[in-house]
Amino acid sequence: MKDSNMWSFGTRQVVYAAIGAALYGVFSWATNFIPLPSVGNVTFRPAVVIPAFFGVAFGPLVGFLAGGIGNVLGDFLSGWGFFWNWSLGNGLMGLIPGLMAASVVSFKDRGTITKAIMYAIGGVVVGMLFASLTEMFTSGIDISTALVGYFTPAAIGNAIVIAVLLPIVMVAYDAVAARSGR
Amino acid sequence: MLVTWKYRPRGTFLDSLDPRSRWITSFLILFAMVPIWHPYVMVGYFCLSMTQFFLSRLTWQETKRVWFFIIFLIVIVIGLNAIITGRGGPGEIQRLEPHVLWERSFNILGATWTPNITVEKIGFGITQMFRMMGTAVLFFIIPWTIDPSKYGVTFSGMGIPYRFAFSMDLAFRFVPTLARDFATTVDSQRARGYEVERLEGGLITQIRRVAPLIVPVVMNAIVNGEDITNAMDLRCFGQDKRTWIGKLQYRTRDYFWIGIGVAVFLGALYLNWGLNLENFFVPTWFYGLFGVVP
Predict the structure, then answer these.
(1) Which tens digit of pLDDT belongs to each residue from B117-152?
(2) No. of H helices and E strands in chain A?
(3) A40 to chain B nearest CA, in Å?
(4) What is the CATH number of the domain that holds A62?
(5) Range of the domain at A110
(6) Which letter does DSSP use for residue B178 in this model?
(7) With an 8 Å Cβ cutoff, are A140 and B206 in contact?
(8) Is the pLDDT of residue A35 over 70?
(9) For chain A, how many structural domains are there in total?
(10) How far apart are CA B39 and CA B132, in angstroms?
(11) Is residue A4 part of a domain?
């Protein structure tokens, strides 16, 4: 079911990176019209499960492109402009979970799901930390502001969404993966 | 739920440029400004970005959302910098002797917190505002001014591996189809009694309620992806380097545009290491505005 080299980028990866990016972009944009749960200044964006899931299912490069390009697409569609460092941060959010792609045996296995959540939350931390800290150079904020104002709300919101939605998507994908015959 | 890209041809000078030259110049200017905090240079940086904005002939109506977003972000960031962190910016501001305009002590759970506002913090906040606006304006016009169908060939032409660039190109093409699928799914779930607008229950329940919208669209896209992969494999995708339908070619105006970026970059290096003008300072006249003697 898995490619032997998780860093390979063949036709399948090209297509799934594009699909992941397009899904992330569309969900980021479409959920503008749906009320989202929020606590304080933390908004929970369900779309963030996409790069994490595509990383776990198809490898780190697919996750990276799904997150990076998908964030660009979402910003383009919503009219937020272009923030390159946040797009790279979103890419990392898909890349890190992809590092466990080679070890997936079954997408509904409890251990695999737990491991996927851990990797995905690690990806959220690394990705959002990267984006927040690069703001120090682009916007000149200090580290406290980067951590309190940017990193904490983004990381908490994304981590909770991933912990809730990633298992659901993985279990649903298990049947599809078995059917694909690859 | 129709997807519309923000781009439309406006017949401007920016439209006529090769997108590669736009990206190269924007990043050159961005990297040039990273180490510099000189307030007058920051004003110049902002003016440079605004010149590009005016060249794009974008209207307020088109971009007001992003302007509000940027202004909101700046207010939050500068407010946090000045009040919560009690610093007002990176290290360089701390070497300036503070001229306090307002100060108050609060006792919170036995700890004393003394936020203040100084002339230096205000000066830094204004400099930071120009910097953040300059950076935001430099890049946010991209969706409105670069044709989405050119991203693949643009990044391929900038040295990004062909397959990555193709993936990017494909993603732009998939968006309308997937947006339509999403709209169909929302309608189908509504027909089954799913109330999209209803937000109730705990946090976890609320997030879980989004799953019936996401899962069908993702799974359907993945199943269709197998067909696309097979079709591409059958056409020998990836066997040899492929060409793009659209071709990009640098022209004189592109070299001119990149030249501006290079000039700004080299100028910034000279300001930084040649003239040592990279540090933040508060101009004497600025103290005068608050009736303070520096």
Answers:
(1) 888 888 888 888 898 889 889 988 888 899 888 888
(2) 7, 2
(3) 13
(4) 1.10.1760.20
(5) 11-180
(6) H
(7) no
(8) no
(9) 1
(10) 12
(11) no
